[in-house]
Queue: 2 jobs
Job 1
Amino acid sequence: MARPHTTALIVAAGKGARVDPSEDALPKQYRQLAGKAVLQRSIEAFLTLDYVDSVMVVINSEHVPLYNGLPVKHSGKLLPPVHGAQTRQESVLAGLEALVKIAPDLVLIHDAARPLVSQQVIGDVVAGLIRAQGCIPALPITETVKRSQNGDGIDATEDRRQLFTAQTPQGFKFKQILAAHRDASAIDRAFTDDAEIAEWADMPVSMVTGDRANMKITHPEDFVRAAQLLRGEALMETHIGSGYDVHSFEPGDAVWLAGVKIPHHAKLNGHSDADVALHALCDAIYGALGEGDIGTHFPPSDAQWKGASSTVFLEHASKLVEARRGRIVNLDVTIVCEAPKISPHVPEMREVISRSCGIGANRVAIKATTNEKLGFAGREEGIFAMATASIELPRQD
Ligand SMILES: Nc1ccn([C@@H]2O[C@H](COP(=O)(O)OP(=O)(O)OP(=O)(O)O)[C@@H](O)[C@H]2O)c(=O)n1
Ligand SMILES: C[C@](O)(CO)[C@H](O)COP(=O)(O)O
């Protein structure tokens, strides 16, 4: 059976008034949380998953410049954003309507305000959709729950064994939740989550165990707690990888080096666009991850990689780092050739690599040297490159 087409719909059109009610406040989803905007974290949590085919973000029409300023890596999976509305419910419906042209099988509706969502929770929700039309992560209540009409006197104590708090992503069969949301928008009732709409529409919704770290950033102090969770969860350790690659010259008029096309009296012969610098760099990252090398992921025998841009492989390698909840600390490449001259191209090379990996250009170094006319590189029979990658990964012990 074919894998269901799955889209993540991230709602980010709120104003975050409970974090800061002032008109000119930076909305919470655009605030930094341990070095990354909240919304960027939420988007990346889904973009990095192979079984998520596309990601759509619902934004507030007043936040367009803020959204465009997010350094989210360009990816065909990230669809153009759509504008939301006054309530979460309306924003979700706007997103669902925009997805009609894609008509995914499954949709995962997620609050931008839950940036710590884990792969485990997302995977469990998707797995839960095999047996139900809807599935949400939820947690049992751990404190005693009181009912009170005025917030003062107690009217009753609830049986908390039957009470759970709902999280996101809330996953649904797309057609059914779209129909339910449309019907719900026609009645005078405010629904606080999508599962409530599904329940109202008699769709069976199951629950899987949520995650305490998958908190919704709602009040100012939640930023402190989320940052602590990120730090505690990610007790990081450093991994170093090295890469080496060589390609020979053949007749041609340009070489690809570190993602830049440089006019030359020959071209390089080899896998894809024969970019030795990016190949060495990818191998360094794969090495740091302990995940084989470029040929493991992109076999040279596979015709689809013939002539392909090696930036595709670099993006893949850096996504693997993200999927492991790691981060690239720095990348260092040395290109060895008599010609062409590399130094004029270094700024562009650093830019290409930083864009492909979603890191600052200050974390990328490109060096070049001649081989003092010694050996094959000295005789201008080919070019070789060496690279080192330093990455941080959650501790494995
Ligand atoms: N009109 C709205 C309201 C909320 N949301 C989104 O729904 C999620 C959950 O909502 P909440 O945490 O309540 O966010 P805000 O509405 O922004 O917060 P507040 O109520 O404090 O203003 C958030 O990611 C928020 O951006 C939305 O897309 N459109
Ligand atoms: C959808 C939700 O995150 C489930 O817990 C929550 O209901 C959204 O919060 P809001 O404050 O009601 O927008």
Note: DSSP finds twelve helices and 19 strands in the chain.
Job 2
Amino acid sequence: MSNETTSGPSVPAPSLPWPAIGVVLVLASLLLIPLGIGNAFVTHIFVTICLMAALSSAWNLVGGFAGQLSLGHATFYGIGAYTAVILVNLGITPWIGMFAGAGIAAIVGMAISYPCFRLKGPFFSLASIAFLEVFRVLTLHFSDFTGGATGKMIPLKLGWTWMVFRERWPSLLIIFGMLCAVLVVVWAVRRSRLGFYLIATRERESAAKAAGVKTVQVRLVAVAISSALCAMLGTFHAMYLTFIEPSAMFSLTFSIQIAMFALIGGLGTVSGPLLGAVLLVPLTEWARASFGASALGLHGFVYGVVLLLAVLFMPNGIIGLLQKFRRAPHHELDEDEQTTQTDSIKAPAQATTPPSPDREGIGRDVMRVQNLNKRFGGLHVTKNVNFTLREGEVLGLIGPNGAGKTTLFNMLSGFLTPNEGSVTVRGPDGGYHTPVNPADFAALGVGRTFQIVQPFAAMTVEENIMVGAFYRHHDEHDAREAARQTAWRMGLGPLLQDEARGLTIGGLKRLEVARVMAMEPRILLLDEVMAGINQTDVRRAIDLMLSIRDSGVSIIAIEHVMQAVMSLSDRVLVLAAGEVIAEGDPHEVVRDPHVIEAYLGKEFANAHR
Ligand SMILES: Nc1ncnc2c1ncn2[C@@H]1O[C@H](COP(=O)(O)OP(=O)(O)OP(=O)(O)O)[C@@H](O)[C@H]1O
């Protein structure tokens, strides 16, 4: 079993007060310093900082939270600029044009991102650049509307209605307000179910799907919000510049700059892009002013050097570096502490799911598997698999390596479509349904774990479990509370604020179960949750599974640890070479000569005589 974790950017806990105080102080100085100095050039620099910080924060929703590294975000900025300028020329105020541009950009963003989500890493970035170029060429082509290569002037109508001013301070007020609004949107997204789902999708798409996340849908929502915000900022900038032309509005360099402030400040964090812009824009503007025409393009060189240094020494950006200093040492549980903790968690555990000595009888069928066949090319992996799972039952699924157990689980949770056969699940309404994808299975109450643990590495233990809890609790406070209760029940209480990437394999296994339990499933598919954990943890896991079973959940458990299989299972199903070779009472099944021959071996049989 590999302890596989990704190393995505760090995600700070959103509720800590010090970053909020820092952000408020930075914002206050962005407004008060230029207003206090009253110099046009200084005000211009602060307008640029606010604009870049806002654009980068909006980009961060897609590039940071969703992990889709777009290098073509100027497309939406350009759409916002052109829409507003065309409308201004028709006599419509940019305050309206701004929203028209936002709507168009959101639709365009979703339309071009949907097919590109299949592309990973640099391929998505390249596709985003290609679309940027397409829009630049389109703007050149439709010159009747856009002015073509010569660009378009904004009619010189001064005043708040037209967003054009003789002085710079009104523009500063507008862009400062827009920056605050963008930050509030990003902050709200980060705290919401959408934010958790985006980060979960970025970290582990399969695990996110298993938690009921509609991964394409949440990324499309993020793209729509991000594109709309960029377009609104594009409108402002067009009015500020009073002139637009295609190569400036749909510029690759500008797109890279937008992404870079977030990369340097802290990808996937609320305050990172703001910090990046505050530190970098004055530096480059100073370089531009100091060296002027003698070193044209010097700002690009400055950006390059800073980016190189950031990648080398601060892979998680400035925010990641700051976090490192304040992060508490990792909390590893020792044996005594674990015992105490297990004792101490009994109370909340019993409060939610009392382990019943008079376990309710096994009820009606909750899952029916009929004639399941799966082929990978010429390899026939599962052959005519039939079985049923009943309410409150624990079904042990055993068999040698390569027998097709995980493949079967993938079909029971919608991750694979069978070539023949069907899986029907009894829904909360009492009717039987045939789900087809992970979201459908989750909606019917089927939760699963993965053989290779799939933590959302950059999230804390609490946040990992919250991704599951959000399935039932849409409000952040409710989801956090449910996650905490589940964590204590699973023995993860003292580790709530630890990052998942720091857990031991035993901890990661428990986290995997905790996340799915937080979804309050009716059917639980456990894939080797006891592999690679010590004897004490195995005993604890057995107790935990019994308490889960007693709460009325039906369980199918793939397990090689026979101690667990024997003490947990009401029934055992043995799969060998894709076929069910035995099914029934565990004590009878382990005596079956076919099972001994195919899986258990003679030594096991002798030991259990
Ligand atoms: N996506 C795939 N493409 C091709 N072959 C696959 C794929 N997934 C699984 N297999 C093959 O199907 C067979 C069954 O694999 P599966 O992982 O389901 O077995 P398993 O019983 O879960 O084994 P283990 O106990 O080792 O996890 C193996 O031969 C495996 O190589």
Note: The mean pLDDT is 86.
